[in-house]
């Protein structure tokens, strides 16, 4: 089944969710799962049945490289 944005995160078959080490009890909780097609899904770990943001492999690569290169540091 193809996953799309807003798809219930707990319905993504085979997803193994990994929580960020920066997640904490203050509500800063994020998890990511690699999808079968090489893309990724992101969810709020406090709401595991909530919606997931789904990225294609190219979108995931562009986003992660941008994070690593500091492209989004302006939001902090």
Keyword list:
single chain, about 80 residues, alpha+beta
Short account of what is shown:
The protein is α+β, with helices and mostly antiparallel strands. The chain is built from 1 helix and 4 strands, in the order ββββα. The longest helix has 12 residues, at 57-68.
Write the layout of secondary structure elements.
Blueprint: E1 18-19, E2 31-34, E3 40-43, E4 53-55, H1 57-68
How does the helix and strand content classify structurally? alpha+beta
Q: What is the helix fraction of residues, given as a range? A: 10-25%
Unreliable stretches (pLDDT < 50, length at least 5) are none
Number of DSSP helical runs: 1
Estimated share of beta-strand residues: 15-25%
Rg calculated over all Cα atoms: 13 Å
**Sheet with most strands: strand arrangement:** 1-2-3-4
What is the typical, i.e. mean, pLDDT? 88
N- to C-terminal distance: 36 Å
Number of domains: 1
* Overall geometry: globular
H-E order: EEEEH
Largest sheet: 4 strands, antiparallel
Total beta strand runs: 4
Could you please describe the fold and organization of this structure?
With 76 residues, this protein is an alpha+beta fold. It has one domain (9-75). The chain is 16% helix and 17% strand. It is built from one helix and four strands, in the order ββββα. It has a four-stranded antiparallel sheet. A hairpin with a 5-residue loop joins β2 (31-34) and β3. The longest helix has 12 residues, at 57-68.
């Amino acid at each position: 089944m193809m996953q799309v944005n807003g798809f219930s995160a707990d319905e993504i078959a085979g997803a193994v969710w990994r929580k960020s080490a920066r997640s904490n009890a203050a509500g800063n909780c994020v998890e990511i799962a690699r999808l079968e097609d090489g893309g990724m899904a992101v969810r709020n770990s406090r709401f595991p049945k909530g919606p997931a943001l789904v990225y294609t492999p190219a979108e995931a690569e562009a986003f992660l490289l941008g994070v690593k290169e500091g492209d989004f540091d302006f939001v902090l």
